[in-house]
Amino acid sequence: MSEFAAIILAAGKGTRMKSRLPKVLHKLSGKPMLEHVLDAADEAGVDDEIVIVGFGSEKVTEFLGTRARVAIQKEQLGTGHAVLQARDLLKGEKGTAMILCGDTPLLEGSELKKFYETHKESGAGVSVLTADAPNPFGYGRILRDTVGRVTGIVEEKDATEEQRRIHEINTGIYCVEMPLLFELLENLSNDNAQGEYYLTDILTECLKRGRDVCGIKTRDFDMVMGINSRRQLAEAQRVMNARIVGRLMDAGVTVMDPASTFVEKGVRVGQDTILYPFTWLEGETVIGSDCVIGPQVRFTNVTVGDATEIQFAYAHDCRVGSGVKMGPYDHLRPDTVIGDKVKIGNFVEVKNSNVGTGTKLPHLQYIGDSDVGSGVNMGCGTITVNYDGNAKHRTTIEDDAFVGCNSNLVAPVTIGRGSYVAAGSTITKNVPADSLAVARGKQVNIEGWAKKHRQK
Ligand code: UD1
Ligand code: MG
């Protein structure tokens, strides 16, 4: 038995998006619109979720997995017809159904919860969430009588000149008691400008049965913005980002330019960290306190400790310790763990490697499939040769080793603790601790050779 179910409409093609992808799978802040709607429904406390799918149903169903139940609307005959497809899945239910659209990703759970509670207190059969829109074009308009009671909703295409001047719009979010909902839906007609079964007509059907209809207005129009075009998608992205970045600032993070700093919902940033412009923090990224991040840093699923400074870098699926200095122009690839107080200078790539405390990778290194100890100094241009064309091999560089410039460490190989590698060496054999390895051609000086060469 469900007390509070959500029916989410996601069967429409989204013609105005001009896309091969179903509208509700278009992403905003790293997640499909539909996922944001499901998150809001979860936060509001729903105990059952049914998504109505139709256009691109395989893709939408695949995305949903086991997260929600699915009802298929074979033909897109209108929003009322769409909700009717949930009838079998909700047979015998006596709770409340909240109807949401998959194309309103800016919804917040707390607002939906408030709406549900107000609906319950009102005792109405149907409640609709409304908002005053600065530009109501395209939305259904809310009709009220002289004492302010809602009498119905008229769609833009069916509205008179006078009705189009109304700014109070239908957000497309309703609470309806079950099983009343399905009785109302069975009585809809498609006698309107679009020849569709309009969900909005359940309001007049409800009034006809002598049950109350309640119109509840939200003050935040942004939250209920419906996405029908790429322009609106960009606008919603801007609003969502401003909301996330605003919350970071409220929590004690300095953001130099909120408009050019992009942070996804799941990201956490510690107190007194400073974010410089053109910083993208994505996925499950966590940044500690007192860090300086950016300009031009893109992190996806990266954990960073405290007091670390990074500029002009791209990192994904890895960890960076505290007190690290990194950049400009570095790339950290998956499964990399950078220890505390490491210094990574310019043009360095690290992949699937561990780098110990205080180690220096100052310029032009490639460190792949390696375990680098602490206190190691890698000379400019030094690389690990981890791939033989067939398989990858690991390199071990023990604590306090000093590797001279332009050396190649051909894996599998170990550079012993405290040892030196002479600049320009190609190391193919293990280097014992505390020794010097020289692996390059011996220098020969031929006296007078240049002078003779010039006289030819
Ligand atoms: C709808 C409302 C309008 C409201 C607006 C809010 C109707 C008739 N109109 O208009 O009053 O102001 O939302 O954003 O309800 N869908 C289906 N099956 C269908 C048709 C649509 O699942 O047969 C889904 C779409 O995928 C979408 C949602 O329903 O998620 C709304 O459809 P859309 O075409 O965007 O309706 P609007 O014209 O925006
Ligand atoms: Mg819409």
Helix count from the secondary structure assignment:
9
Derived structural class? alpha/beta
Question: How many separate domains make up the residues?
Answer: 2
Strand content: 25-35%
Catalogue the ligands. Answer: uridine-diphosphate-N-acetylglucosamine, magnesium ion
Q: Within the CATH hierarchy, at the fold level, what is the topology of the largest domain?
A: Spore Coat Polysaccharide Biosynthesis Protein SpsA, Chain A
**The CATH homologous superfamily of the largest domain:** Spore Coat Polysaccharide Biosynthesis Protein SpsA, Chain A
Q: Which architecture of the largest domain per CATH? A: Alpha-Beta Complex
Tell me the helix content: 10-25%
Q: Report the average pLDDT across residues.
A: 97
**Rg from alpha-carbon coordinates:** 31 Å
Number of strands: 37
Largest sheet: 19 strands, parallel
Give the CATH class of the largest domain: Alpha Beta
Low-confidence stretches: none
Distance between the termini: 101 Å
Using the alpha-carbon principal axes, give the shape. Answer: elongated
Walk me through this protein's architecture:
With 456 residues, the chain is α/β, with parallel strands linked by helices. The chain folds into two domains: 4-224, Spore Coat Polysaccharide Biosynthesis Protein SpsA, Chain A; 252-437, Hexapeptide repeat proteins (UDP N-Acetylglucosamine Acyltransferase, domain 1). It contains nine helices and 37 strands. The strands form six sheets. The chain has a 19-stranded parallel β-sheet that branches. Strands 5-4-1-6-10-7-11 form a seven-stranded mixed β-sheet. The protein is elongated, with a radius of gyration of 31 Å. The mean pLDDT is 97. It binds uridine-diphosphate-N-acetylglucosamine and magnesium ion. Residues 9-12, 52, 54, 73, 76-79, 81-82, 101-103, 139-140, 153, 155, 169-172, 198-200, 226, 228 line the site of uridine-diphosphate-N-acetylglucosamine (UD1).
